[in-house]
Amino acid sequence: xxxxxxxxxxxxxxxxxxxxxxxxxxxxxxxxxxxxxxxxxxxxxxxxxxxxxxxxxxxxxxxxxxxxxxxx
Length: 72
What we know:
Layout: H1 3-12, E1 15-17, H2 18-25, H3 29-37, E2 44-46, E3 49-53, H4 54-66
Antiparallel strand pairs: 1-3, 2-3
């Protein structure tokens, strides 16, 4: 594998799909999409799929905890 491909794979490992976020948080997919739409959870749309940086999810969860959580 070339160095360039390795770098791309490392970069992709920093991202999660909405399905991953559902699995990690236990929140409903519709609730995650709601937070993305409101700009509360940073995400990038790639084609038809949203991807979320792991650090952005951590920040979102920390903010939700500070605010008293969120109903699933």
